[in-house]
């Protein structure tokens, strides 16, 4: 399901206008992204946790030239579902 | 309420979303709760759910697999299960990795930018260029940034509107002052989130204003550097070449003059017929036992102490020491054996060398005249080779 479809669905369920729901959806995405960018852990109630982890630079090989370089330090986003959700999905 | 800098709690998220969307916290709470419940429901149905700007949630099935009980060694089956997979959107990943966000709280991008601007200014002044144009620009830019953040701290909504206007940055400075007075009366509510949000606009304006400065600085900067470096390299090369060639030329001149001298002496000696010591045996045969001549360069050796067959590793100096008690007198041995020895330093093993009987005067190395002869001969023989 795309984000748009989800927004429409939520709007129907809550009785919010579509515009409001869209604005809220955009706000949610932005807030979460910004928080993650600040290395914050985002807690989603009844759902789980979104957090960033750091990946250290490693040696990578350019497949075309065979040249070996060091990759950049990288931050990745991980999701940890909470216990309740985990059980529910099993 | 206390704000934890390491996490964004549910309540904080609710507040932030409410503020951004311009709705009440209650509505935002309702929305977020529904979002979570709907997502969970959809996931349970086996659908994947995408939340814009965050990522995609999806159920992943882990199949059952065989394994071994470590303690008993018995084969067991680990049952399969479902888990929730999450793939972040490209936008967030890029945001996290493209502009290096503060890893530590002290190192905010704002500070970095102002530091960079300062460094650029320093470089400009160091270069001795007129920093007026570039410098003022960056300085202005910094001042602007500084002012803006100050204002933003005061009035929370100023920056909120700024964010809405992000798409059209040209309109920013004009629109800002107009908005300020209207918003000033209600600063307290938004103050909490101000530090979080002020980074983005600040970053954007900062980069916009420092980049042209850098470009301007580079254009006149490059040719100067290249010219300077090439000049230095040329100078060094010239000095080296001069030193090297000077040495070479001197050597050349020396060898040429030596050769001509040598030739001249050869000619004169041929004329006079004195240069016959090479055939010392002839002298013996003819019975002409001339006395050793001190002053004339070529001496004629007629009597010999011994004829030595040279073993490996022997040197003329060693022979001289053995028979005369002085290493320096090797020159006379060489002189007497010129016909057999091509060079004093390269003697073939097994060469028969005749050690001549030397005049007492020649043996006397304290005699300045003898020393002069020895030195002269040494120079001649050693240079030849």
Instruction: Tell me the quaternary state.
Output: heterodimer
N to C succession of SSEs of chain A = HHEEEEEH
pLDDT averaged over residues of chain A: 88
The structural class of chain A is alpha+beta
- Rg of chain B (C-alpha, Å): 49 Å
Largest sheet descriptor of chain A = 3 strands, antiparallel
Rg of chain A is 19 Å
CATH architecture term of chain A: Irregular
Total count of helical runs of at least 4 residues of chain A = 3
- According to DSSP, the number of beta strands of chain A is 5
Percent range for helical residues of chain B?
55-70%
Unreliable spans of chain A are none
In sequence order, what are the helices and strands of chain B, one letter per element? EHHEEEEEHHHHHHHHHEHHEHH
What descriptors fit this protein?
heterodimer, A: 90 residues, alpha+beta, 43% helix, B: 385 residues, mainly alpha, HU Protein, Chain A, 10% strand
Walk me through what this model shows.
The complex is a heterodimer of chains A (90) and B (385). Chain A is of the alpha+beta class. Chain A has one domain (3-84): IHF-like DNA-binding proteins (HU Protein, Chain A, Irregular). Chain A has helices at residues 3-14, 18-37, 83-89, and strands spanning 41-44, 48-55, 59-61, 68-70, 74-81. By secondary structure, chain B is mainly α. Chain B has 3 domains: 10-96, IHF-like DNA-binding proteins (HU Protein, Chain A); 111-226, no CATH class; 277-384, no CATH class. Helix content of chain B is 60%, strand content 10%. Chain B has helices at 10-21, 25-44, 90-98, 109-127, 132-154, 156-164, 172-183, 188-191, 194-197, 199-272, 280-286, 316-324, 330-336, 360-363, 368-384, and strands at residues 7-8, 49-51, 55-62, 65-68, 75-78, 81-88, 304-309, 352-356. The longest helix of chain B has 74 residues, at 199-272.
């Amino acid at each position: 399901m795309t984000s748009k479809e989800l927004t429409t669905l939520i709007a129907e369920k809550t009785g919010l206008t579509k515009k409001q729901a869209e604005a809220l959806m955009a706000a949610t995405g932005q807030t979460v992204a910004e928080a993650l960018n600040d290395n914050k852990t985002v807690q989603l109630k009844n759902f789980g946790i979104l957090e960033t982890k750091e990946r250290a630079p490693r040696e990578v090989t350019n497949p075309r030239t065979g040249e070996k370089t060091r990759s950049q330090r990288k931050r990745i986003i991980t999701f940890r579902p909470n216990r309740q959700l985990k059980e529910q999905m099993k | 309420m206390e704000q934890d800098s390491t996490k964004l709690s549910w309540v904080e998220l609710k507040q932030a979303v409410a503020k951004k969307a311009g709705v009440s916290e209650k509505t935002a709470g309702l929305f977020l709760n529904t979002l979570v419940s709907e997502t969970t429901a959809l996931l349970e149905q086996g659908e994947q759910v995408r939340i814009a700007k965050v990522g995609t949630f999806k159920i992943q099935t882990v199949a059952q697999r065989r394994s071994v009980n470590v303690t008993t060694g018995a084969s067991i089956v680990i049952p399969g299960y479902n888990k929730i997979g999450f793939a972040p959107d490209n936008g967030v990943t890029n945001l996290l990795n493209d502009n290096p966000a503060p890893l530590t709280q002290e190192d905010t991008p704002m500070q970095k930018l102002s530091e960079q601007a300062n460094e650029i200014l320093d470089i400009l002044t160091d270069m001795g260029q007129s920093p007026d144009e570039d410098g003022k620009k960056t300085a202005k830019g910094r001042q602007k940034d500084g002012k803006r953040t100050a204002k933003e701290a005061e009035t929370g909504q100023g920056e909120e509107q700024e964010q809405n206007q992000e798409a059209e940055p040209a309109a920013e400075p004009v629109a800002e002052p107009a908005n300020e007075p209207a918003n000033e009366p209600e600063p307290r509510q938004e103050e909490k989130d101000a530090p979080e949000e002020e980074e983005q606009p600040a970053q954007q304006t900062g980069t916009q204003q420092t980049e042209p400065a850098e470009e301007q600085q580079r254009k006149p900067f490059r040719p100067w550097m290249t010219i300077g470096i090439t000049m230095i390299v040329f100078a060094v090369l010239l000095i080296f070449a001069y030193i090297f060639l000077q040495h070479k030329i001197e050597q050349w001149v020396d060898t040429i003059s030596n050769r001509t001298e040598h030739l001249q002496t050869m000619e004169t000696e041929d004329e006079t017929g004195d240069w016959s010591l090479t055939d010392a045996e002839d002298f013996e045969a003819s019975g002409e036992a001339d006395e050793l001549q001190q002053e004339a360069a070529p001496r004629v050796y007629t009597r010999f102490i011994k004829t030595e067959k040279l073993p490996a590793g022997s040197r003329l100096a060693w022979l001289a020491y053995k028979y005369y008690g002085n290493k320096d007198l090797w020159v006379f041995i060489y002189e007497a054996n010129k016909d057999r020895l091509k060079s004093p330093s390269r003697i073939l093993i097994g060469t028969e060398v005749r050690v001549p009987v030397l005049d007492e005067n020649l043996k006397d190395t304290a005699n300045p005249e003898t020393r002069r002869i020895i030195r002269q001969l040494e120079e001649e023989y050693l240079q030849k080779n």
